[in-house]
Design brief:
The protein is α+β, with helices and mostly antiparallel strands. The protein is built from three helices and seven strands, in the order H-E-E-E-E-E-E-E-H-H. It binds nickel (II) ion.
């Protein structure tokens, strides 16, 4: 396993639309292992492959609390089959937009279909933090960041702040 570099705004690669994965093979599992290691190291709770520069429809996530054992999860080619009309606000952050947090409103519950690390295709309902996180990560697959849901002014301020941090680092 290896740590990968996480791209930050305004890197244009983050705007790319990711391609579907044909098959879950050892090479893809190696990518998912690297993504999990990179996410834990950051630390973060979710990461899309495009954030490490790989335009594939792959997401990793771990929503376990600090007092719980790790619960790594992988989502290949995730699709939203249904979304509730009811929405819920959540203060989101993103490893590609470090140290910026703002409220985004999304459907409160969604029904998903995705392929697992083992290559099995399953359906699952998501609510709460899981629903927030999977929708945030699935936006990355379309080249959309959570700051794209904010006003233009807030988005521009966020990008400016991240650029300034990167220069100072
Ligand atoms: Ni993100």
């Amino acid at each position: 396993m290896a740590l990968r570099d996480i791209l930050t705004v305004p890197d244009p690669i983050l705007k790319k639309v990711s391609a579907r994965v044909d098959m879950v093979d050892d090479a893809l599992r190696a990518l998912m292992d690297d993504m999990l290691e990179t996410m834990y190291d950051a630390p973060g709770i979710g990461l899309a492959a495009i954030q490490v520069g790989v335009p594939k429809r792959v997401i990793v996530m771990d929503l376990a609390r600090e007092d719980e054992p790790p619960a790594p999860r992988c989502f290949v080619n995730p699709e939203i089959l249904w979304a509730s009309e009811e929405t819920a606000p959540y203060e989101e952050g993103c490893l590609s937009v470090p140290e910026i947090y703002d409220e985004v409103e999304r459907p409160a519950r969604v029904k998903l279909r995705y392929t697992t690390y083992q290559g099995e295709t399953v359906e699952e309902d998501a609510e709460g933090l899981f629903a927030v996180c999977i929708q945030h990560e699935m936006d990355h697959l379309e080249g959309v960041l959570f700051i794209d849901h904010l006003s233009r002014l807030k988005r521009e301020q966020a990008v400016k702040k991240v650029k300034k941090q990167a220069k100072a680092a």
